[in-house]
């Protein structure tokens, strides 16, 4: 996994946007103005994703590189990318984060995004 592939995965989500609201050091990926992923721009590759609280705890205890660093620890995990985590797993976590955010959107926005997903499939 590298930053370009991570960016591609994030931007492949329907209606996803890339922004820098916290300055140039963090890339923020949003859907309908709601954050679903944040990626550090410099240094070792790491990113935050939203996660179901129970699953978040399980992931933290299962993977050394998954922590609850510097963000809402109950709902967000920080993943330091290393060889212990496959690209497929990273993709799944990003997609799950996106789905959690979309699920909390107003119904009309959620339905529009789900319709886009159906068109892609």
Task: Walk me through what this model shows.
Helix content is 41%, strand content 24%. By secondary structure, the chain is of the alpha+beta class. The chain has one domain: Aspartate Aminotransferase, domain 1. The chain has 4 helices and 6 strands. It is globular.
SS strand fraction: 15-25%
* Order of the strands making up the biggest sheet: 1-2-3-4-6-5
Main beta sheet strand tally, sense and closure: 6 strands, antiparallel
Number of helices: 4
- Cα-atom Rg, whole angstroms? 14 Å
Give me the CATH fold name.
Answer: Aspartate Aminotransferase, domain 1
Mean pLDDT: 92
Query: Between the first and last Cα atoms, what is the distance in angstroms?
Result: 24 Å
């Amino acid at each position: 996994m590298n930053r370009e592939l991570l960016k591609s995965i994030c931007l492949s989500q329907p209606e996803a946007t890339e922004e820098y609201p916290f300055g140039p050091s963090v890339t923020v990926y949003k859907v309908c103005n709601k954050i679903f992923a944040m990626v550090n721009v410099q240094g070792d590759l790491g990113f935050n994703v939203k996660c179901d609280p129970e699953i978040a705890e399980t992931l933290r205890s299962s993977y050394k590189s998954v922590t609850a660093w510097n963000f809402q620890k109950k709902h967000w995990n920080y993943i330091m990318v290393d060889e212990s985590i496959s690209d497929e797993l990273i993709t799944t976590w990003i997609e799950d984060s996106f789905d959690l955010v979309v699920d909390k959107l107003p119904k009309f926005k959620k339905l529009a995004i789900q319709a886009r997903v159906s068109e892609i499939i």
